[in-house]
Amino acid sequence: MIVDDSVVARTVLARMLESSGKFVVANAVGNVQAALGFLETQQVDIVLLDIEMPGVDGLTALPDVLAASGGAKVLIVSSTCDDGAAATIQALALGAADTLVKPGIGAFAGKFSEVLHEKVKRLLDAPAEASGAMRGNLAACKVADDFDVVAIGASTGGIHALSQLLREVPPDFQVPILITQHLPGSFMSYFATQLAVLAGRPCEVATDCMRIRPGRLIVAPGDAHLRCVRMSDGTAIRLSHDRVANGCMPSVDPMLASVAQTYGARALAIVLSGMGRDGSEGARAIVQAGGSVVVQDRESSVVWGMPGSVFNAGQASAALSPSDIGRLIASRKRPS
User: Fold this and answer.
1) Which of 69, 78, 155, 251 is catalytic?
2) Which of 102, 221, 255, 259: CA 20 to 30 A from 21?
3) 182 counts as catalytic
4) pLDDT by residue (tens digit) across 252-279?
5) Measuring CA to CA, which residue among 221, 310, 304, 212 is closest to residue 258?
6) Annotated catalytic residue 301
7) Which of 129, 160, 181 is the last residue of a domain?
8) 336 found inside a domain
């Protein structure tokens, strides 16, 4: 379903999607009220949602659209989603599966059409990336009773999962949290600001040689891998730009591998929603070092590729919802 107040945009988007022969546009409406009314009786797989619309805007309506759609993935298609835009981070934090910058009328052809088809196809194909998850039991999770660091990796759907997770961790929780989220560098400053608000604690974009301090959130920059190293007086961040097998930049694998080497059995790794397999090699290193790995469950994931690959490899102690993972983190002993 397409939700856009511009009749031209609705028409062009519908033609683009249906011309491929792979997609069917169930409806194209001009406002949120019409979209919610349609979803009361009809089911769709994907909703293309504009942000700037008269009446109720797309961001305000997003939670209601997600609830009414019964599991459909929402792709925000809006001119406000340019590089570094606050609207992009807000949409992803509210549960949008992905975003796409809508070009001006007359510039819809060519590259935009290719990107639109690819994004929709990947979101529709996403559930098949992994299978067979069993939801974990929070009380029965075999996770170490104590840890000195939490390392979180995420991609598509991860920002919303992070927001749910961090809400369950009290602001005075002192274990440092390292985060690698697949995002371009231009988004990172605003992303860190949003995480600081959600978590109620300082959040910084990693810089080379930055010290890892208690109670801090540190996020990987968009153009470098976040690694950690042991120093004579604690631990520090080292950034690297090495190519990795999965092709991601930043990548979860080098972060987790370095955490395993630095913290060993006192490391807790979390792999949240994301496409592909980034994090699976790093999770193996965590387990081999005696640390613990928990992944997001399939039911709550936008894409169960990354967490599913870790789970199906037998590296995860449990598959939980983001809120349960947050409660699990908060329930552990704190360093003295």
Assistant:
1) 155
2) 102
3) yes
4) 999 999 999 999 999 999 999 998 999 9
5) 212
6) no
7) 129
8) no
Residues 214 and 149 in one domain: yes
Indicate which residue of 4, 278, 297, 324 is catalytic.
278
CA distance 236 to 296: 27
Range of the domain at 295: 138-331
55-61: long-range pairs with CB below 8 Å, 24+: 55/31, 56/31, 56/32, 58/3, 58/32, 58/91, 59/87, 59/90, 59/91, 59/94, 61/32, 61/35, 61/36
CA distance 77 to 238: 36
Closest to 174 (Cα-Cα) out of 147, 204, 142:
147
Determine the 3-state secondary structure of 141 from DSSP. Answer: coil
Of the candidates 281, 254, 163, which has an alpha carbon nearest to the alpha carbon of residue 217?
163
Residue 40 included in any domain: yes
The predicted-structure confidence for 84-108, as pLDDT tens digits, reads as follows 578 889 999 999 999 999 887 655 6
Query: Which of 4, 69, 163, 182 is labelled catalytic?
Result: 182
